[in-house]
Specification:
The protein is of the alpha/beta class. The chain has eleven helices and eleven strands. The structure holds pyridoxal-5'-phosphate.
C-alpha cells in the first residue's frame, strides 16, 4: 500500500502512462488471486466494492426486475446488510420476501424450508455462510444444489468465512459471493468484493453508473465485466493491501488456515465443556459440527457490555458485545432479551495459548460472579 501510494498512485484505465498501467496490472492481479481463492470462473467477474454491505446491495438490488413480481428468500440469521436492503425494497413495493426461521439452538436453516419457499417469482436466495453471531455454518452445498436445480440465483454473504473457510463457488453452486476485504481476506477497511457467476451479470442492473476508463466514447454504462459494476475511480491503494492479504492466504493455503482454526475451535469447545464456569452459556452450535470460529457467550447476571469491558480491562481480550447488526439472529437464539451476547472470534494469528488466556479469564469471572451473587 505504501509503494502504491508513494510510487504509483494512478487510476487504472485513466491514462496510458506507466503508473496507470501499473495500477491496472495490480487490480487485475488482485482479481486473479481472489478468483483462485474461491475457484471462480473468471477474474473479470471479481468486482471491487466499498465493503461487504456494498457487495450485498449491488447483488440484491441488481437482481430486481422492474415491472415484475420479485421475491427474495433469506433467513432470520441474516445480517442487517441483507435484511435492511430487502426491507427497503419491500417498503418501496419492489420486493416480496420470505424470512425463514432457523433452529433456536444451532441457528441452522433447514434446506427443505428453502425449497418449499421458492416460487416462480423468486429472484434470489440470500444466505449467510457463517453467522456473525453464533458462528453457525449454513448447509451451503445442499442450499446451492436446490437453488441450481430450481434456477434461482444463490447469494452468499461470506463476511465471516472468506479467507477463513475454504469456499469453492463452482462446486457449491454459488452465483454471487459477497465479501468484505477487511476481515478474513486481511485487506484494509474500505475494500470489498462481489463475485458474479459469468452470465448472471446479464440479468443484473447496475446500482451506479459513471466513468470506467473503457468505452469512453459512449455515454452509456459498458456491459463488459468488471466495468459494468465498477463506475468511478477505484480504491487502488486499498486493493494493493487486499491483494497482499489474499496472496498471503494463498501461500498458506486456506485449507491449512482452516485446519488451524478448527484446532482452536476444538480447544475452545473442550475448555468450555471441561472447565467449571458457572452461569456461562455458549450460544449456537454446541459442538464442532457446523461452526466456524465465532463464539457468542452469555454469563448469567452479567450484561454483555459489562463482560466485554471486564475482558478488555482485566485480561486484554478484545470482544464485541450487543446485537452485532443481526437482530433477528438474537431473536432466534433467545438472546435479544439479554441485550445480545459477548462475541469472541478467532483468526489465523490466534494460538491455543490465547484460547487458554480467554478461558482462564472466563473461569475467573464466572467464579467471582458466582461467589458474590451466592445467597449468604
Ligand atoms: C455476516 C456479515 N455480513 C455482512 C457484514 C457487513 O460487512 P461490512 O462491514 O464490510 O459492510 C458483516 C460485518 O460485520 C457481517 O458480519
Amino acid at each position: 500500500m505504501m509503494r502504491f501510494a508513494t510510487d504509483v498512485d494512478a487510476s487504472a484505465g485513466r491514462g496510458g502512462y506507466a503508473e496507470a498501467r501499473e495500477a491496472g496490472r495490480l487490480m487485475h492481479e488482485c482479481r486473479e488471486r481472489i478468483n483462485r481463492l474461491i475457484n471462480g470462473a473468471s477474474p473479470d467477474h471479481v468486482v471491487f466494492t466499498l465493503n461487504g454491505t456494498d457487495s450485498l446491495n449491488i447483488a440484491i438490488k441488481g437482481l430486481v426486475i422492474q415491472g415484475m413480481r420479485n421475491h427474495a428468500i433469506t433467513t432470520w440469521m441474516a445480517h442487517n446488510s441483507v435484511l435492511r436492503p430487502l426491507n427497503a425494497l419491500a417498503e418501496r413495493g419492489h420486493m416480496e420476501q420470505t424470512r425463514l426461521p432457523c433452529d433456536p439452538k444451532t441457528g441452522l436453516v433447514d434446506p427443505d424450508d428453502i425449497a418449499r419457499a421458492i416460487t416462480p417469482h423468486t429472484r434470489l436466495v440470500a444466505i449467510v455462510h457463517g453467522s456473525n453471531v453464533s458462528g453457525t455454518l449454513m448447509p451451503l452445498r445442499e442450499i446451492g444444489a436446490i437453488c441450481r436445480e430450481r434456477g434461482v440465483p444463490l447469494l452468499v454473504d461470506a463476511a465471516q468465512t472468506a479467507g477463513h473457510v475454504p469456499i469453492d463457488v463452482r462446486e457449491m453452486n454459488i452465483d454471487l459471493l459477497a465479501m468484505p476485504g477487511h476481515k478474513g481476506l486481511m485487506g484494509p477497511l474500505g475494500t470489498g468484493v462481489l463475485y458474479i457467476r459469468p452470465g448472471l451479470e446479464e440479468q443484473m442492473r447496475t446500482m451506479r453508473e459513471g466513468g470506467t476508463g473503457s468505452l469512453s466514447e459512449s455515454d452509456v454504462q459498458p456491459l463488459n465485466m468488471p466495468d459494468k459494476f465498477e463506475a468511478g475511480s477505484q480504491n487502488a491503494i486499498g486493493v494493493a493491501g487486499l491483494s497482499a492479504g489474499v496472496q498471503w492466504i494463498l501461500e498458506q493455503g486456506v485449507e491449512h488456515l482452516w485446519e488451524h482454526e478448527e484446532e482452536l475451535i476444538n480447544h475452545m469447545l473442550q475448555r468450555l465443556d471441561e472447565d467449571d464456569m458457572p452461569g456461562l452459556r455458549l450460544v449456537g452450535p454446541p459442538d464442532f459440527q457446523n461452526r466456524c470460529g465465532v463464539f457468542s457467550i452469555v454469563i448469567d447476571g452479567i450484561e454483555p457490555n459489562e463482560l466485554s469491558a471486564i475482558l478488555e480491562d482485566e485480561f486484554s481480550v478484545l470482544t464485541r458485545a450487543g446485537f452485532h447488526c443481526a437482530p433477528l439472529a438474537h431473536r432466534t437464539l433467545g438472546t435479544d432479551r439479554l441485550g445480545g451476547t459477548t462475541r469472541i472470534s478467532f483468526g489465523a494469528f490466534n494460538s491455543e495459548a490465547e484460547v487458554d488466556v480467554l478461558c482462564d479469564a472466563l473461569r475467573e469471572i464466572c467464579g467471582e460472579y458466582a461467589a458474590t451473587s451466592a445467597p449468604s
